[in-house]
Amino acid sequence: MILSILLCFLSIAWTKQDWKDCGPGKARFHLDLTWETGSPDGFAREMIHVNGQFPGPTLNINQGDAVEIVVHNHMPYNTTVHFHGIEQIGTPWSDGVPGLSQRPILPGSSFTYTWTAYQYGSYFYHAHSRGQIDDGLYGAITIKPSLEEPKSFGTIAKTQKDLDSLVKAEAEVKPLIFGDWRHVTSSETWELEQAAGIETACVDSLLVNRKGFVNCWSREDIQTFTSPPAKQVLGGLNYTDKGCLQPQVLIALFPGKSPTNISSLPKEIFEVCTPTNGSTAVIEVSLADNEWVAFDMISTAGFQTLTVSIDEHPLWIYAVDGRYVEPILVEAITLENGERYSVFTKLDKPAGDYKIRSSGIALAQIMSTTATLSYAGLVKQQKASVPYTNMAGGNTTADVAFFSQAQQKGFPASSPAKTVDQTIILGLVPAGASYLWSLNGTSYSMSLEDTSPLLFASPSTVHSNLTITTKNNTWVDLILNVTTPGQPPHPIHKHSNKGYIIGAGTTVFNYSSVEEALKYILENFNFENPPLRDTFTTPPSATGPTWLAVRYHVVNPGAFLLHCHIQSHLVGGMAMAILDGVDEWPEVPGEYEGYH
Ligand SMILES: *[C@@H]1O[C@H](CO)[C@@H](O)[C@H](O)[C@H]1NC(C)=O
Ligand SMILES: *[C@@H]1O[C@H](CO)[C@@H](O)[C@H](O)[C@H]1NC(C)=O
Ligand SMILES: *[C@@H]1O[C@H](CO)[C@@H](O)[C@H](O)[C@H]1NC(C)=O
Ligand SMILES: *[C@@H]1O[C@H](CO)[C@@H](O)[C@H](O)[C@H]1NC(C)=O
Ligand SMILES: *[C@@H]1O[C@H](CO)[C@@H](O)[C@H](O)[C@H]1NC(C)=O
Ligand SMILES: *[C@@H]1O[C@H](CO)[C@@H](O)[C@H](O)[C@H]1NC(C)=O
Ligand SMILES: *[C@@H]1O[C@H](CO)[C@@H](O)[C@H](O)[C@H]1NC(C)=O
Ligand SMILES: *[C@@H]1O[C@H](CO)[C@@H](O)[C@H](O)[C@H]1NC(C)=O
Ligand SMILES: *[C@@H]1O[C@H](CO)[C@@H](O)[C@H](O)[C@H]1NC(C)=O
Ligand SMILES: *[C@@H]1O[C@H](CO)[C@@H](O)[C@H](O)[C@H]1NC(C)=O
Ligand SMILES: [Cu+2]
């Protein structure tokens, strides 16, 4: 207790907590947002800093804490901050979505988010105004579980000593933030897309814990790692020097009525790759501290899908999206945008440096980076570590195990209701160009962010083709129907509470409900302890239509966003508002409703 209060005082300088909040049950933070030059990958650009740093400070919270986060916007842009994966039970006005749960935080203004940390585990905060994640506004949130939460570590530990070591490792879990990075700002990206009429489906580098470098692959490597599906899409052309699809290939993939103008794009966007030295992250671990180490692996990537691994260090996944699972042993994990995996790894190798690998595996762009896991303070062996994954994120030997969604079983087990009150079928389709997207044929315009928040209205007045309406304490199926060919996986993120992924398929979903589908394709469903997540990734539709079925319990009345977490798809309109529990619509506190 005394120690934790002391630690709290020491952290005041770091997170700008107030001294009076160093008491039990409270966590208070100030986030000062500034727009300054930074060069995370060795290339200088204007970007967002949080409390003068990038990424922002980790918010360390205890389960059960009353959390208060005061955001000060010193930038020349509107902004908001969303707490990704936090359910916001009873506090929908603190969800951080402009036009839905609050008015934007104007330049020079502040906003106070308050919520209770009912959950434990790995989360992150990020900007939720336009595509501002691509400007660097994000940081980890670590919520330490209360002593009452049962742990699933018995499967991993062989001895009591192991178990103690795992518990200690979890208490000291370190965030490993995997991101991607662009050399243009998010608003420039959107302007370029509108002028060219195509998605800028090409980023500049990958980052690990804010560090990286522009890693230009040799022509030979690009040819070697061009996958058969990529060759098919490229149709005789090669990936560009940045490892990207040629702009004309994107136009052919997403034919539309709107005009395109490739010549308006600077060559640096898709083609010219200029290497930088940048820097690489070194994660120091010490055998003297503990035999096991825990990482919260978080994807903050705006665009890329990332396959990650640590050379010679198998990973025990013990939590997914902030909730314990029956531990799964793997060597590599593919992170979709916004996903979190909490992992243990044993420090039982000879002292030395081991590469942490992150590879972009989107069909639209192949790329890679590395960081280092370094055993500190010991005489190190000098030989290079042996990889599980290659530059393209593929396995290096036949026995490398990748995490697969089907393996995920919650701990303790939990299952959804057997029947539902409502089925919502949503078509995922491009909206006439590669940079314009929709959910169910309707595009959610980003200009809605500047309109009066739906949460402040009477839900009966705002029903439209951009809203989904549910009643409280009902069960709802969301069927994500990917019907057009050539679509990438869409990581569809649901704000507020999580949903169970109960089914998936790679054929047309021509049924009116899950109940009907069960009569024909029972084998595509699982209702026993299915994956419970806040991001639902649809299977890619390269070879034909696909679908994903999600079942959730409406428990938290409020206006929440359902959207693709790929920033260019979100800005392109792939979002809808879920008006949950309209029959129990909350009264918004005056200070939130009256905010500027
Ligand atoms: C693609 O790259 C290969 C290898 O560098 C080269 O031989 C070939 O001519 C290129 N194809 C095109 C269409 O540029
Ligand atoms: C295409 O972009 C170029 C460069 O910005 C511009 O000069 C040209 O007018 C544009 N063409 C059309 C048809 O808009
Ligand atoms: C990268 O580092 C090398 C060696 O220190 C140096 O010669 C080179 O100029 C640097 N390149 C850039 C782009 O900074
Ligand atoms: C990768 O794994 C697959 C399936 O196990 C196997 O067929 C393939 O040979 C492996 N690749 C390498 C390079 O070992
Ligand atoms: C989805 O689109 C279909 C066809 O336009 C429409 O009938 C249905 O109501 C839409 N669903 C929602 C939830 O808006
Ligand atoms: C959605 O509603 C808007 C406003 O009523 C309308 O302009 C638009 O055509 C509708 N879109 C679809 C796909 O029904
Ligand atoms: C910021 O938000 C205000 C209020 O919603 C809006 O009027 C204004 O246009 C926005 N400014 C920018 C630069 O988007
Ligand atoms: C899903 O999309 C396909 C292709 O457009 C369509 O045939 C099917 O009817 C859709 N399913 C539902 C349930 O709307
Ligand atoms: C769905 O489509 C498949 C293939 O076209 C067909 O075999 C099946 O009978 C259809 N099911 C329903 C319920 O229409
Ligand atoms: C909504 O339903 C949930 C689940 O039954 C319940 O816990 C909660 O109290 C309800 N909320 C309101 C405001 O009635
Ligand atoms: Cu998407």
Automatic annotation (TrEMBL):
Keyword check for Oxidoreductase: yes
GO molecular function: copper ion binding; oxidoreductase activity
SUPFAM superfamilies: Cupredoxins (SSF49503)
Keywords of the record: Copper, Glycoprotein, Metal-binding, Oxidoreductase, Signal
Pfam family, any one: Cu-oxidase_2
Signal sequence bounds: 1-15
Start and end residues of each Plastocyanin-like domain: 34-146, 175-377, 464-580
Family: Belongs to the multicopper oxidase family.
Protein name per the record: Laccase TilA
